Structure formats: C-alpha cells, structure tokens
Amino acid sequence: xADSIEALIKAGATVVDVRSAEEFSDExxxxxxxxxxxxxxxxxxxxxxxxxxxxxxxxxxxxxxYAARLLSMAGFKHVVNAGGLxxxxxx
Length: 91
What we know:
By secondary structure, the chain is α/β, with parallel strands linked by helices. The chain is built from 3 helices and 4 strands, in the order H-E-H-E-E-H-E. Strand 1 (about 15), helix 2 and strand 2 (about 35) form a beta-alpha-beta unit.
C-alpha cells in the first residue's frame, strides 16, 4: 500500500495529519497539513477542491479512518486512509 500512497503524493495529493497539534509538532510527514480530527468538519474549506485526492494519516489509522468517513460524507470524492505516521512512505 505504501507504493500506491507514494504515487498519490507524487501526483499531487494533499497529505493531512489528523492528529493533535501537539503530536504534529513532535513529528510529522514532510509537507503535511495538520487538521486535528475534531476540527475536520469546521475546516472543510482548508482542504479546497472536493475532487482533489486527500491522503490522511494519524498515529494508528483509527482517527484517519474516522476523518475519511467524515470527509466522504461531506462530499470529498478521493479520500485515502494511509494509516499511521510510520506507515507513510519514506518515514
């Protein structure tokens, strides 16, 4: 799966870290946007075009799975749960 995630990122997907700001400040995937899962619905505009591919991650994949469901329900068409930070390609 890491190969397909890497391909999506190279193709221009937006990487979103849905962990807390504190977790993000400790370490994060280079270039990721930090929108904690509890802020996703209030910050939909920060994600831009609903047709753009979004790659989400958290610590284990649970919060990013929840965020992916919320985004899909909000009309985002291409949302991928990459799992945890350490599942991200090259991390």
